[in-house]
Design goal:
38% of the residues lie in helices and 15% in strands. The chain is of the alpha/beta class. The protein folds into two domains: 2-222, Rossmann fold, CATH 3.40.50; 236-498, 3-Layer(aba) Sandwich (UDP-N-acetylmuramoyl-L-alanine:D-glutamate ligase). The strands form two sheets. Strands 1-9-18-17-16-15-14-13-10-11-12 form an eleven-stranded mixed β-sheet, with helices on both faces. The chain has a seven-stranded parallel β-sheet with strand order 4-3-2-5-6-7-8, with helices on both faces. Helix 5 links the parallel strand 5 and strand 6 (154-158). The radius of gyration is 27 Å and the shape is elongated. It binds ligand NPW, adenosine-5'-diphosphate and potassium ion.
Length: 528
């Protein structure tokens, strides 16, 4: 799914209006009705008080359309206008007038006013700011946002949690709505997926706001969200007459005394993802461990007992995963330097190999074409330096990727694959994967995918997706705490099989039950 910038969304709104010869207000009405339908399907007429906070721009206008629709259908609605400016938009004003048809006069909130009384069982709709936010909010609006956050009532934001910019970091972390559910127009925004800004919402859903589809499809975006739909065209099926030689010989270089398990995990993941052959290059101390725990793997031993001191072999690997469990012994650093100068095979560089590169940056020039770097946040910082916020981190990573012509995978809850100016945000995976060795599994998978012939960008996008999906499937029956890295390996097959499962049919709206929906909503609510 494409992720549009705020400018691109405004362009889409303007194009939709011009091309389809509709007014901006008609488009807002359409969006407001979609939001109303979302509520109506879930609430089925329940008389829970709904407090709608509307700004004076078009986000607020959409809130007023929702308010009018809810009133028309007999809901218990309280509307407020957050009067942060006297520059009200035309469509806000049209809808401000129209809600009065229902003999409802929204309460005006401005500096110095008491904030409305609310109960924690109520529902709040946040339509204060949308993507038009362009500067820090005034103190009283910030206080209102803090008041809403402290209310403990279920909060649904329209388009974005107010105070959150789609494409850069908020100046003040307290001046952002903590939303339980964000109903976003057409496609999610970049800030929904970054660790510092994604925390402002628990869930989101993209609603059809009626923007011109043809135009949306024609826009090139820098950012894409990766789900099954994006993955299916990347998958290459196996040939009937295939033999193991076709799917490549992978080499995993790593391990040191006490860290042979990392190589075992990566090698088994590499096999499970489909490599034809696998060899592990390890220090002598790992020989029996590896041959016993993974009989499918071949092993080449370094002459040293505990560390890798020379990377030499007589095989021709199609891809090499390097760095896991490697350590940073002086002899290992020397071996890595010598190896990088002669190696031509694409690399998947992880863990200590990244740390060695970070303190010997000139070595980055010797990294072979088509290589992938897989840093977790600390390793990334060592490579690209400190960043001011997550958006700055992305810019620095892009610059790094371009400078050294490498794919960089920024590991995290939403792992991001960066190649030059493009960012691919992964949407599988779960916090159960924050466990020792899960990164080693990813390294093995990526190596195995390149060996099978996927180019490095495709291998990165596909590998990260399958890794997360395997973790998600493993989670069932295990739970977050018990999931360990070997479980991810064991479910790689299921992650492949899941690609070909039909998507679940959308469930019909449930008939209203005695228990009102809002109870359910309050029970699952977890504000920070
Ligand atoms: N037909 C349509 O157009 C549709 C629009 N839709 C909806 O419109 C939303 C975008 O609307 P929007 O452009 O009016 O911006 P919005 O976020 O409501 O902000 C209002 C204005 O506030 C101002 N301002 C900014 N920062 C400020 C600050 N810190 N403190 C005080 N004032 C501040 C700034 O104006 P300024 O003062 O800079 O001139 C800004 O323009 C979008 O998110 C979606 O929900 C959908 O319903 C689909 C149909
Ligand atoms: N909260 C999370 N949600 C989804 N995936 C996660 C989460 N935390 C970690 N992961 C994934 O687990 C892996 C951890 O990698 P890494 O930190 O290198 O682990 P290790 O060094 O122990 O192998 C990454 O692929 C990362 O994306
Ligand atoms: K909002």
């Amino acid at each position: 799914m494409k992720i549009y910038s705020a400018d691109q969304i405004y362009q889409a709104i303007n194009t939709t209006i011009e091309k389809n010869k509709i007014s901006s207000n008609e488009l807002m009405e359409f969006a407001g009705i979609q939001i109303f339908n979302w509520f109506h399907t879930r609430m089925q007429g329940a008389q829970v008080p709904i407090h709608i906070y509307c700004g004076i721009g078009n986000n607020g206008g959409s809130g007023l359309v929702l308010g009018r629709q809810l009133l028309q259908h007999g809901y218990n609605v309280h509307t407020y206008v957050v009067n942060f400016s006297d520059k009200r938009t035309k469509d806000f004003l049209i809808n401000y007038d129209r809600i009065k048809e229902f003999k409802v006069w929204p309460r005006l909130l401005s500096s110095g006013e008491e904030f409305p009384e609310m109960n924690k069982e109520d529902i709040i709709v946040d339509a204060i700011f949308g993507i038009g936010l362009n500067r820090e909010t005034s103190d009283w609006v910030k206080n209102l946002i803090k008041y809403i956050n402290a209310s403990d009532a279920y909060t649904v934001s329209i388009d974005v949690p107010s105070g959150l910019y789609p494409n850069h970091a908020p100046e003040d972390k307290e001046a952002v709505i903590e939303s339980n559910f964000t109903l976003t127009g057409q496609a999610p925004k970049l800030s929904f997926f970054l660790p510092e800004t994604g925390i402002y919402m628990q869930q989101w859903e993209a609603l059809n706001f009626g923007f011109d589809q043809e135009y949306l499809q024609s826009i090139e975006t820098e950012v894409e969200l990766i789900d099954k739909l994006e993955i299916l065209p990347l998958y290459v099926p196996r040939e009937k007459y295939a033999h193991k030689g076709i799917y490549g010989h992978s080499l995993i270089v790593g391990g040191s005394y006490g860290k042979i398990g990392a190589v075992t995990l990566a090698s088994s993941a590499c096999l499970r993802v489909g490599t034809g052959l696998i060899t592990a290059y390890i220090p002598k101390c790992g020989y029996i461990i590896l041959q016993t725990s993974l009989p499918e793997a071949m092993v080449i031993c370094d002459e040293d007992e505990k560390n890798i001191t020379k990377i030499q072999y007589d095989i021709e690997p199609k891809a090499i995963g390097i760095g896991i469990g490697l350590g940073t012994d002086a002899a290992t650093v020397k071996a890595l330097k010598a190896f990088l100068k002669t190696n031509k095979a694409p690399l998947v560089i992880d863990a200590d190999a990244l740390n060695i590169l970070a303190v010997n940056k000139t070595l980055l020039k010797s990294v072979s074409k088509g290589s992938i770097l897989t840093p977790h946040p600390k390793e990334l910082e060592r490579l690209i330096g400190k960043w001011t916020d997550d958006f700055d981190k992305l810019e620095k990573t892009k610059a790094f990727s371009k400078k050294y012509n490498v794919v960089v995978i920024i590991k995290g809850a939403h792992t991001i694959t960066c190649y030059a100016d493009k960012l691919y945000i992964n949407n599988t995976g779960n916090p159960g994967m924050a466990t020792a060795g899960s990164g080693d599994v990813l390294t093995g998978m990526l190596t195995g995918l390149i060996s099978q012939g996927y180019d490095s960008v495709t291998a990165a996008i596909l590998g990260v997706y399958l890794h997360g999906k395997a973790g998600d499937i493993a989670l069932t029956g295990l739970g977050y705490q018990a999931l360990i890295a070997s479980d991810i390996v064991e479910h790689i097959g299921d992650a492949y099989l899941d690609l070909f499962k039909k998507p679940e049919e959308p469930k019909e709206a449930e008939a209203p039950k005695e228990e009102p929906k809002k109870r359910k909503a309050t029970q699952v609510r977890r504000k920070r």
